[in-house]
Amino acid sequence: MAFRIDENTCVGCGGCAFTCLFGAVAAANDDASLYSIDPSVCVDCSQCAGMCPVGAIIAPDGYKKISKVTIVPEKCKGCSLCSRVCKAGAPKGKVKEPFEIDQEKCFRCGLCATKCRFEAIEVEYA
Fold it and tell me: Domains in the chain and their CATH numbers?
């Protein structure tokens, strides 16, 4: 799965590329009048779609928007992997103690949940 850009709608403003913290969006041509999303890098966070002023970014089939990401303290071992992979800096804590997610910083991509070795991160969908 990955978001994609409708080439007929994209106006080449670059807002999507500026917004993507993962580097999944880049100019698709020499004059940067069109952008594309690399599906091997996209984590389906939807930040680019929220930035697009013309609605050119299309969610993948079956996409479910994440409404909340939380860490279950009883399962968290404090390994800090979640904080190391999070581009927003949302997981906070001390190593070897349960971490927690700063909901103000979290943009609900769910990447931390896919990397957690202890299944301590729960994802709720809208």
Answer: 4-58 (3.30.70.20), 66-125 (3.30.70.20)
Distances (CA, A) of 114 to 29, 81, 122: 32, 11, 10
Q: Partners of 5 in the beta sheet?
A: 57
The per-residue pLDDT for 10 is 96
CA pair distance 103, 106, nearest whole angstrom: 5
User: Mean pLDDT score of the chain, rounded to an integer?
Assistant: 95
Tokens 């190391």 belong to: 84
Could you tell me which residues come within 8 angstroms of residue 118 by beta carbon, excluding any fewer than 6 positions away?
Answer: 75, 76, 77, 79
Q: Give the pTM.
A: 0.81
